[in-house]
Specification:
Strand order of the largest sheet: 5-2-1-6
Structural class: alpha/beta
Oligomer: single chain
Distance between the termini: 27 Å
Largest sheet: 4 strands, parallel
Radius of gyration: 18 Å
Number of helices: 9
Helix content: 25-40%
Length: 239
């Protein structure tokens, strides 16, 4: 439990690293997101890659071909890089990362690092970063607590720079629509994090941007029961 700053992932990592470097002989530093100093982004990527490895095997077994698109939400980027990495060599597969657009893309009102940020250094890694003109880290906002990190795993920055993956943003309202759509149509309540990816995909379909017959994998990184109070408040529903 962290009480400093905005009390989010950024601040938790700040405190963990401070303790680690102060008590290096007795403290181990571990993190579940693909951020921070080398080799942690690679370690997390390799462990999370089981997601993409299983998805690749299953889609080939069930459909007999590779997907046209793989979609995942991106905060720090651990689930997304785990899904993307096993498909990275399949250049015909489009990789789409969806960040938290929050209320708007004005500074401090979103967490869309790859969409609206620029290269900088945070927690011992150079990656895209939400920062002001002086290089100070900006506050973030997202309806989903898991997407409000002001930077992103460096491998996502590499995929953006090389064009291997495309990154977009979905705002809070879009995420809520994605959560409602999956809950009502499939009986699956997604977390607000992957609901951003679902909502953006629905908007792509409404705009006619998805060719008929497309085979798409969406990574549902988390379940939504933890988010019900947040969703109820956002939708003005009394529980």
């Amino acid at each position: 439990m962290v009480g400093s700053g905005s009390r989010t992932l950024k601040d938790a990592i700040n405190e963990a690293i401070r303790d680690w470097v102060t008590n290096v002989e007795t403290t181990f530093y571990l993190i579940g997101s693909a951020v921070g100093p080398h080799p942690y982004p690679r370690i997390v990527r390799n462990f999370q890659a089981i997601i993409g490895e299983e998805a690749r095997k299953q889609i080939l077994a069930q459909e007999g071909r590779m997907p046209d698109m793989v979609v995942a939400c991106v905060g720090g980027g651990s689930n997304a890089i785990g899904m993307f990495y096993p498909f990275a060599d399949a250049l015909d597969v489009q990789l789409l990362g969806v960040e938290a657009g929050g209320i708007s893309l004005e500074a401090g009102k979103h967490a869309a690092t790859l969409v609206a940020g620029r290269p900088g250094i945070l927690h011992g890694a150079m990656s895209y970063l939400l920062q002001n003109g002086d290089g100070q880290v900006l506050e973030t906002h997202s309806i989903s607590a898991g997407l409000d990190y002001p930077s992103v795993g460096p491998e996502h920055s590499y995929m953006k720079e090389t064009g291997r993956a495309t990154y977009v943003s979905a705002n809070d309202a879009t995420a809520l629509r994605g959560l409602q759509a999956l809950s009502q149509s499939e009986g699956i309540i997604p977390a607000l994090e992957p609901a951003h990816a679902l909502g953006y995909l629905l908007e792509m379909g409404n705009r006619g941007e998805i060719p008929k017959g497309s085979l798409i994998i969406v990574n549902l990184s988390g379940r939504g029961d933890k988010d019900m109070l947040t969703v109820a408040q956002a939708l003005n529903v009394t529980l």
